[in-house]
Amino acid sequence: MINGKRILCVVPARGGSKGIPLKNLRPIFGKPLVARAGAVANQVPEIDRAVVSTDHDEIAEVAKKAGLAAPFRRPEDLSGDRIGDWDVLHHALREMERIDSVQYDIVVMLQPTSPMRRAEDVSNTIKMLQNENWDAVWTVSETDSKGHPLKQLTISQTGEMNYYSPDGEKIIARQQLTPVYHRNGVAYAITRDCLINQGSIKGARTGALVIDTPQVSIDTEWDISLVEFVMNKNSLA
Asked: Which residues are registered as beta bridge partners of 181?
């Protein structure tokens, strides 16, 4: 709870995954991804209730052992690979308010695929949302200049290469680039009003909390190797 606001944490962890089968159960240094998310959630003092949203019984059991509640199962129509975050969070919020007979004021999402998050990053996201009166706050990381949109290229069906943006041809040195950022999945904090009344996880006013520590969002086997390398190098295992 923060300033009298009740906080629900949701860890979305469906069973299906095309890139890495049962990705949310994949161990990193012996601990499954969903369990790592649960461990962090339980270190955040502002969180009142932390649950897993899953359609998979084994994920639910692993999550419960890590301190996450699993009082409901996500329905099949919300378990596909084209279901958005809003659908999952809206369902979890409604289910938990029904089950707990309370109203939650803030929903925090912790994606298991970002295993290098710290509890302080989650706390800071919640505090920024509340103290600065945002509709939502997302954690982001600065994008390496090599991945900047103005340095990206496209290739047509005929093989012709071009700049993704016409302004790309004006870029000579990286110092000309305005920094851009990408979601890192560490934390999302969203007001109930934003989810319910605005129907979005990004409201009319959404702030960004920049995370300076290394972060990798896992989609591929290469990402897992990179996470293990970075965690080992920084003694984060």
From this structure: 142
CATH label, 7-142+181-233, candidates 3.30.43.10, 3.40.50.80, 3.30.390.30, 3.90.550.10:
3.90.550.10
List per-residue pLDDT tens for the chain, 237 residues long: 999 999 999 999 999 877 798 999 999 999 999 999 999 999 999 999 999 999 999 999 999 999 999 999 999 888 887 889 999 999 999 999 999 999 999 999 999 999 999 999 999 999 999 999 999 999 999 999 999 999 999 999 999 999 999 999 999 888 889 999 999 999 999 999 999 999 999 999 999 999 999 999 999 999 999 999 999 988 776
Closest-CA residue to 188 (of 114, 120, 129, 137): 137
pTM of structure? 0.93
| Cβ pair 107, 93 in contact under 8 A | yes
Residue type for 173, please? A
